[in-house]
Each structure stands twice: as structure tokens, then as C-alpha cells.
Amino acid sequence: GAGVSQTPSNKVTEKGKYVELRCDPISGHTALYWYRQSLGQGPEFLIYFQGTGAADDSGLPNDRFFAVRPEGSVSTLKIQRTERGDSAVYLCASSPTGTGSEQFFGPGTRLTVL
Amino acid sequence: QQQVKQSPQSLIVQKGGIPIINCAYENTAFDYFPWYQQFPGKGPALLIAIRPDVSEKKEGRFTISFNKSAKQFSLHIMDSQPGDSATYFCAASRGKLIFGQGTELSVKP
Q: Is A67 within the bounds of a domain?
């Protein structure tokens, strides 16, 4: 079956611009997670959805970052007024449960802020 | 309390060797400990995972050893192959995953 997909695979933007990153989870998975991975580091948690609601958004670095999952499937991570420090690979994962186990990752979106 | 410490940072072994990667955690509330394999330009792929009520789990050439009292766990790769060359991440979870810093493994032919 299809895995987690993320679009775009690469995004280059200018400082101050707004970007949207999309995640399509595995069909039927109720939990969806966003992580951010900087070069040479492990992924860092951003936000977790159980269904349509954000169950834990404690990893969002500031109020420029926002994510939605309006119908409990596709999710969009939105970043306003991008900064050079936002450059990273943004990873999405989905899981059949909300317990944190069995998280399957997509290929990521590489965001570069010039 | 949320930190997961992983070592070594990099590791080189010969084909057929048994690389061992170690992780330590602090938060005793963690209840799920997965290992992920990541190739350049790809997302992390779930390799094997263990829960704290089990001391060892084996799947194919991959084995996790878990020491609950020491709050440590490790990954062993038996009969390593050049195709195993990748970055390996341990993680700990109670909901969200907390990842270690990663180990870059190189298996020489």
C-alpha cells in the first residue's frame, strides 16, 4: 500500500515569505505527527494530531508555525514570515494509533530559506 | 528528562562484523523504544522496536537489548553488510518520539 507522502519534496523561499507543506498519511491512520530535522541531527517533534484536533503542539517553536488537519486525513504545516533558521527537512509521520508507537515517516520536505 | 543520548556518533565496521549502538534515556514514563534507519535524502524507516517489559527482541539480523534498571537500550546488527551503511536513530516515546542524535554507520566490504 501507499506510504506517507509529502509535497513539495523541496521548497526554496525568501526570508519573510509564507510557506505551506503538505502531508498525506497512510490511509486509515488516525494519528499524524510533524517533526523537523536539521542537518546531522535527529528529528525534533513539532505537533501531533489525533483525528482533526491537535493533541500536543508543545514542539512548535513559536507562533509563526501552525498546522491543521481539517478532515482528519491530510495535514498542512504553515510557516509565516520565514526565517533562515527555519531551513530544515520537515518530516511527517502517521500511526494507526495515538499511543506514539509504530510511526511511519514520509520522505520529508526540504525547506531552504534564503 | 526528555533527553535521549546516543553513542557512538559514528561507527566503521568490516562486512560481517556486529556494530553495536547504545542509547540512554532519563524519563521513566517512556513506554516504547524504536530504532529507525535513515538513508541520505530519505525519511527514517522503522527497523525494530521494544517495550520496557521485554529485555530483548530479535527481528532478522537486528536485535534490541533493553536494560530497564539502567535506563539503557542498544541495537546490534548481526552479519552486517555494506547495504546497512546508513544513519541509525534510537528514540523513546510516550506519544511523541524523542530521538537520539544518530549514529552514522559505515560497513566496509
A: yes
Distance from C-alpha of A109 to C-alpha of A6, rounded to nearest angstrom: 7
Q: Is A109 on the interface with B (CB under 8 A)?
A: no
Domain count, chain A: 1
Q: Classify domain B4-108 at the CATH superfamily level.
A: Immunoglobulins (2.60.40.10)
Summarised one tens digit per residue, pLDDT across range A33-83 is 999 999 999 999 999 999 999 999 999 999 999 999 999 999 999 999 999
DSSP summary character for residue A96: S
Question: Domain holding A91: CATH number?
Answer: 2.60.40.10
- Whether residue A35 lies within 8 A of chain B, CB to CB, comes out as yes
CA distance B102 to B22: 10
Contact A42 B93 (CB under 8 A): no
Question: Mind listing the pLDDT tens digit for each residue in B28-59?
Answer: 999 999 999 999 999 999 999 999 999 999 99
Q: B77: distance to nearest CA of chain A, Å?
A: 20
| C-alpha distance across the termini of chain A, in Å | 37
